[in-house]
Amino acid sequence: MAEAMLTKRFALAGIMVPGRHGKLIGEAGVTIRVVGDIAVAHVSARKGQNAALLLVLARMVGAPVADQPQRVARDTLSITGISPGQWRLVVRGHNSEATLRAAIAELQESAVVTELGDGLFLADISGPRARAALAKGIAIDLHPGAFKVGAAAQTSASHIGLHLALIDDKPTFEMISAASTAGSLWSWLTSSCGEYGCDISV
Amino acid sequence: MHYSLWSVLREGLSGGKGWTPAWRDPEPKAEYDAIIVGGGGHGLASAYYLAKEHGLTNIAVIEKGYIGSGNVGRNTTIIRSNYLLPGNIPFYEHSLKLWEGLEQDFNYNAMVSQRGVINLFHSDSDRDRYVRRGNAMMFEGVKAEYLDREGVRSFAPFLDFDNARFPIHGGLLQRRGGTVRHDAVAWGYARGADQRGVDILQNTEVTGIKVEHGKAVGVETSRGFIRSRKIGLACAGNSSRVAAMAGLRLPIESHVLQAFVSEGVKPLINQVILYGAGHFYISQSDKGGLVFGGDIDGYNTYAQRGNLYTIEDVFEAGMAMWPGLGRLRMLRQWGGIMDMSMDGSPIIGLTPIDGLYVNCGWCYGGFKATPASGWCFAHTIARNEPHQLNAAYRLDRFATGHLIDERGTGAQPNQH
Amino acid sequence: MRIGCPYCGERWNDEFVVLGDADAMMKHPAEATFALFYDYVYLRDNPAGRHRELWYHQGGCRQWLVVTRDTLTHAVHGVETARCAAQDIEAAS
Amino acid sequence: MSAQPYRLATGGLIDRKRPCHFRFDGREYTGFAGDTLASALLANGVSLVGRSFKYHRPRGLLSSGAEEPNALIELRRGAAREPNTRATTIELFDGLEAQSQNRWPSLGFDLLSLNRWAAPFLGAGFYYKTFMWPASFWEKVYEPLIRRAAGLGRAAGADDPDHYEKSFAHCDILVIGAGPAGLMAALTAGRAGARIILANEDFAAGGQLHGDGGNINGTAAAAWVNGVIAELAAMPHVQIMPRTTIYGVYDGATYGAVERVNDHLLSVPAFEPRQRHWRIHARRAVLASGAGERPLMFANNDLPGIMLASAARTYLQRFAVKPAGRVVIATSCDDGWASVDAALAAGVAIAAIVDTRSEVDEALLSLGRRSGAAIYCGGDVVKAHGGHRVGAITIRNATGSNTRHACDGVWMSGGFSPLIHLTSHLGARPQWDEQLQAFVPGQNLPAGLAVAGAACGDFALGACIAAGQRAGIEAAQACGFSAPAAEPILCPETSAAVGVITLPRTAAGPVFVDFQNDVTAKDIALAAREGYSSPELAKRYTTLGMATDQGKTANINGMALLAAARGKSIAQTGTTVYRPPYTPVSFGALAGHHRSKDFRATRLTPAHHWAQEQGAVFMEAGAWMRAAWFPKAGESDWVESVIRETKATRSSVGLCDVSTLGKIDIQGADAGVFLDRVYCNTFSTLAVGRARYGLMLREDGFVMDDGTTSRLAPAHFLMTTTTSNASKVMQHLEFCHQALWPDLDLHMVSVSEHWAQYSLAGPRSRDVLQRLVDRQHDISNEAFPYMGAREITISGGLPARLYRISFSGELAYELAVPARYGDATVRALMAAGGEFGITPYGLETLNAMRIEKGHVTGSELNGTTTARDLGLGRMMSTKKHYIGRVMEERPALRDERRWQLVGLKPVDRSHRLKAGGHLVGRHEPAVTANDQGYVTSASYSPMLEQWIGLGLLSAGDKRHGEIIRACDLLRQSEVEVEVCNPVFFDPKGERLHG
């Protein structure tokens, strides 16, 4: 397989340094876990196939999927609405590419699927001050009453587009953004977390 | 009365009781030889030159509010003639020359200050564009200077040379560019026009333009109908609305441009500096305030205010260019309504209606153009044909394709 | 200013790109006559008051929207997708 | 030196256990935590704190808050110096250093105070009438002098050392101000469960309660404030933000705010910002900003020691500082009398009380009589006397006779004006309320904003609190919360602050209206007389309200004077409009994180680190950082590197990272139809497995972008765009699809980020590729000819795409791999090419080779060129309609004299050609009339071994062979050039097919 011959290089390689950042005293207010290995595809409902596609997507994750900015996940696979009739499939973990391809095969009839070559990075951001840190760049209302578990949004921070979803009420936010600007976004993110103390891990 | 050192001394000694109104507050006449709609800088200048250069003195300037309440009082006071395209350079250079003699001409100190304008560039392709522009100026006989990085540093060592996202590669300098005390321009023209017999009708709103058989015959106003066979519109951001009164559609969108002034500080910069990697330009007024601005907000509007995003954008560019600004403060912000044209260049000329003339499409460039705009508009109205200097600014150029698109962004007014 | 995107919800105008008068710019002339195209490209409504205009949610769902907005007050009176609006135009013509 | 001689022994909201040492103008003083710099200076007996702008008059504290026009100082030192900082709002900290400003050589002795003797000649607008002769003197003599004398404090002149950040917030209700009304509004709505932000400019909540004291619900005001704050702090849905100014209202219920996070500390703690800018969206807002006291207008009313009565009470009661020992209280409203008790309690003697009103409430009079002061009802202050501090005051009684009273302080009250600035930020005009003698919020308030308390004219404490409660209930209900009914709050009857604006009735000296800008009553009268009679003109002519305090204490008095001068009422004259910000906002806060390298995002390609390892020199290309060239040891400049890189490529093989190109995946049954409409050439006929160069026009007929588009399957295309237009093209295509042709069966997604792409160019490029491409894919010349496009696998199964396209004119390929494999792929290609001497090249070599081939880029696709101009006219199909077709037919776009693309070669091969020079006939002078075009791009050509360029030249197509001049007057160079075919190298394109 290709993986044996050519090794992947993750978007944050050389940028992200695991460990404690910012304020050193006390419990870290923010925890960032970078998920290195992901595979991603863009799914767009074929003409007249929206309803059929929703059923296929629901079957994949074992839960209803709506044509809305929401994230539904099962195991390592998540489906997030990004635009009417369009979703993003993300698979996390070691076997991500194979899992993604299997999923894509199921979708061919009802959707046009574009496999994205992973010019993205994904980080889970959690902790008691995660909301405060993210609010330093993200303009949408992250209050638990306004952005509930499962909610997703395409927006931006620090002039860089990103995708945000709330995956649990710890709270843990899933952030996905382009690899090319990962360094700049990282600079903003770590600077924003600095005053709360921040644990970064892979 | 004539302003002079002696008049100031005399009035100082006598308690200032002798100062007279700078302009009259006349009742409108029933008919004028020409009417200018819009008592802003361009309108007042047009009236002034109609009287001074063309001997038309039975004219009125009709202003909805108070004179100078539009963009001549809401800009960043910059004058320059560093344009790129043939249709533009001679016109703006003529304007700059008029600025240079303006105070003596209209006996009012508008504080024309030729302190130099520097456009920074930040890449090789930027540089090539500025060299092209500088050469266009030199071909027209307008002096421009090429500054390399060290050359810029010698003028403005406080800029970010060491840690910038977009390093400064150099700059294009026009030493004759500078700033003017903007309100004084309106006042000086108003006073000059008034002295030559022009009626300045403030608080008079034009509510209709009467056209008979394809000819303009007069305007309806809040103070009654006023007859005239020559009507010039100089309404800046309101051009579309006023032209619509004559059934005319203009290739114009109205957008807000915000500008800002800081608290006054002791002299920091002398030149006008324009950042090339973001939309930001700054100078310092004689009172000490830093005057600066950026891009338009980008949506159609007639509200003289903008929104936070644009403001933040301006300050980000400011700090990126000059990190020493951090602890200075924005004192006041305001917005002016820009008549953005479809190619980013102005329109001064005839319309399909006889006797109706338009002067609009100034985009950001209106203030610096004030003298030449008035001068050319006066010529166009008086002679019923454009002067060579504004020949390119025809209204029908969009149909013929003779566009004057300095930025090359096409028919998208908010991109100019 | 805040625009209520039908898909993403209400967002600040930073996330959008504005094109201009929706009524002029969505009626792509079916006939290739110069007069029609001149109007289409150069003459847009510039009213003081309600205005239907095209906004692109570049920083969100990447949909083109038709926003009805007051140019005197900046109040937003309605938002629909350009796709829906275009289908209405087609249905009407 | 006695420590704090004017500090009262007890009382105040100061922490006497935490002394703060500070310096002012080099002298050491001590104050307490809880002080402002102003109160600490007063406690130490410093009453002269600044100089005015124009006449450099000595000035003391007028106020105790944000409206302060006089006490502006330079705070901190070195790079952290902040000019024009109001001493009244600086929270004292240990180690504070401040200096007075706008004086020379010292605050006590300022030479420019001589200006006051020239005052008769320096009235409003004097500079418009003079300094015109001789003309050249303005810039050489007058202006430099004026500039040096003007300005206030000195900027640091060094990069700001502190960090700033921004944050966004959302809430149901934003409460602006934590005085009695604001606290009540927040408490009421907070109890109802609404999400609340309570923003307070001051560091302590309570507002004027701390100056006026009293009891609320039976507890002392300060304790009541603490109780409310404690209850609010315990509510998780309430965010209390002290030191936070809501400075502006923007559309969409958006509020701009600045939080001074660490301005009260000596230095900013690590990882924290100095200030934070907030953009707040609030469904409802309650403006409880209070009211500001107006000065009285009398001669020399600007002398140090003369202050607002409410400020004096604040110094006495909040800060336990005695601003004076013997005062005259001068008022035009009941509220001024409230200072009597405060003075007596602190042991301040009252020499006299002047009330401009002839009828004064008996209770007040008896209060006054108890103080032993001389009382003048219907009297006026005529003039204050003194040098650096008021020493006496002349009072005229109701019958017109004057009495002089010695004093070291005057506490004045000209009534109160509601602080309604925020109400008019969206255009609502303030309205004059004759009853209140003040401007109140006008119609058309910002959507969702309500005004409560003194800001709305509810000056009495009871009414103020009730209004706050009411506003809290209404706002909570509007947000869908069920709020409790209003409950009565017990508080004492307080005096009303409605004051009569009294115009100066005599002219015994300068009467200051705008203290900072030295605008006098006489200036306002002059403006009116000279025709600058609308409020806006008068403001601009006199500079009234244009100083750093924006006329907070000046505007209303100024408008009253203007109205009087015009013989009109204030209601008829109106006032100027307030614009943001309410108080000045720092550049740093508004820029936040976005400075230096973080100004804008930097984009890096997947192979960036590899290029770095190769020693690449990078250049900014829009947001991207791209390798410009790869210098080798011994190469002294980029030209040498370009020569080596080009020759290696053209003779063997070179590699270039082209990942930055825009890439758009287009699928669907109608993809071909769509491409036919957006490109001027045809794509529906393109065969699967083939690529085609496409040209896209704007609707106005000019060229928008170019690039190759490949057909990967019958209903699947992959479009490439130029790097700089990637996002613009995507937006355009989405517009075309969604707004123009929504019925097309089409799916588009940008895949620019997802494919790393490398150009392999040169005769050995196929040899290199073959080592990576998996064996089942035949990439021989026959099987995969020029303009082939195919999905393949490399290195044992990695999906990739291969395009046989060329920018360099060589046999060349572009290999695209998933971004995560980009780094490994480039390394693998380099390893595979080792034996052929594979050479990485950068943008400079790319540029040199494309100029050799006459290919256009952004320099030629500059938005003003047509397809014909670029020699691409034949690409415009005549068989179909496409975007841009109709407008391209306009006469000016078809004019034969248009500037057309040509090649340019210096006649003397040793001459260097640079871009930006203009083109003129060989023997014609370089003037506009002869301007025939310009050099768009230039480079050294390693193959021609001379400098060459591309240009746009009038009718250039027909002028090949002509000798003309490229004139770069700006850089003093003129080069004779031969006009030639823009394809300099391999004009027949034979190398492409090798």
Automatic annotation (TrEMBL), chain A:
<dbReference type="Pfam" id="PF04268">
    <property type="entry name" value="SoxG"/>
</dbReference>
<protein>
    <recommendedName>
        <fullName>Sarcosine oxidase subunit gamma</fullName>
    </recommendedName>
</protein>
<dbReference type="InterPro" id="IPR007375">
    <property type="entry name" value="SoxG"/>
</dbReference>
<dbReference type="InterPro" id="IPR027266">
    <property type="entry name" value="TrmE/GcvT-like"/>
</dbReference>
Automatic annotation (TrEMBL), chain B:
<dbReference type="InterPro" id="IPR036188">
    <property type="entry name" value="FAD/NAD-bd_sf"/>
</dbReference>
<keyword id="KW-0547">Nucleotide-binding</keyword>
<keyword id="KW-0963">Cytoplasm</keyword>
<keyword id="KW-0560">Oxidoreductase</keyword>
<dbReference type="InterPro" id="IPR006278">
    <property type="entry name" value="SoxB"/>
</dbReference>
<feature type="domain" description="FAD dependent oxidoreductase">
    <location>
        <begin position="33"/>
        <end position="379"/>
    </location>
</feature>
<dbReference type="GO" id="GO:0008115">
    <property type="term" value="F:sarcosine oxidase activity"/>
</dbReference>
<protein>
    <submittedName>
        <fullName>Sarcosine oxidase subunit beta</fullName>
    </submittedName>
</protein>
<dbReference type="InterPro" id="IPR006076">
    <property type="entry name" value="FAD-dep_OxRdtase"/>
</dbReference>
<dbReference type="GO" id="GO:0000166">
    <property type="term" value="F:nucleotide binding"/>
</dbReference>
<dbReference type="GO" id="GO:0046653">
    <property type="term" value="P:tetrahydrofolate metabolic process"/>
</dbReference>
<dbReference type="Pfam" id="PF01266">
    <property type="entry name" value="DAO"/>
</dbReference>
TrEMBL record, chain C:
<dbReference type="GO" id="GO:0046653">
    <property type="term" value="P:tetrahydrofolate metabolic process"/>
</dbReference>
<dbReference type="InterPro" id="IPR038561">
    <property type="entry name" value="SoxD_sf"/>
</dbReference>
<dbReference type="GO" id="GO:0008115">
    <property type="term" value="F:sarcosine oxidase activity"/>
</dbReference>
<dbReference type="Pfam" id="PF04267">
    <property type="entry name" value="SoxD"/>
</dbReference>
<dbReference type="InterPro" id="IPR006279">
    <property type="entry name" value="SoxD"/>
</dbReference>
<protein>
    <submittedName>
        <fullName>Sarcosine oxidase subunit delta</fullName>
    </submittedName>
</protein>
From TrEMBL, chain D:
<protein>
    <submittedName>
        <fullName>Sarcosine oxidase subunit alpha</fullName>
    </submittedName>
</protein>
<feature type="domain" description="SoxA A3">
    <location>
        <begin position="511"/>
        <end position="592"/>
    </location>
</feature>
<dbReference type="Pfam" id="PF08669">
    <property type="entry name" value="GCV_T_C"/>
</dbReference>
<keyword id="KW-0560">Oxidoreductase</keyword>
<dbReference type="Pfam" id="PF12831">
    <property type="entry name" value="FAD_oxidored"/>
</dbReference>
<dbReference type="InterPro" id="IPR041854">
    <property type="entry name" value="BFD-like_2Fe2S-bd_dom_sf"/>
</dbReference>
<dbReference type="GO" id="GO:0008115">
    <property type="term" value="F:sarcosine oxidase activity"/>
</dbReference>
<feature type="domain" description="Aminomethyltransferase C-terminal">
    <location>
        <begin position="900"/>
        <end position="986"/>
    </location>
</feature>
<dbReference type="InterPro" id="IPR028896">
    <property type="entry name" value="GcvT/YgfZ/DmdA"/>
</dbReference>
<dbReference type="Pfam" id="PF13510">
    <property type="entry name" value="Fer2_4"/>
</dbReference>
<dbReference type="InterPro" id="IPR042204">
    <property type="entry name" value="2Fe-2S-bd_N"/>
</dbReference>
<dbReference type="InterPro" id="IPR027266">
    <property type="entry name" value="TrmE/GcvT-like"/>
</dbReference>
